[in-house]
Amino acid sequence: MNINDFVILPGSKTGTSVRLKPKTVRKLQLEKVQLETENEEMEKRLRQLKSNMRREKEERKASSAYHWKSGQARPMTTQAQVLSQRRDNNNKV
Question: Are 6 and 16 in contact (CB under 8 A)?
Answer without folding.
Answer: no
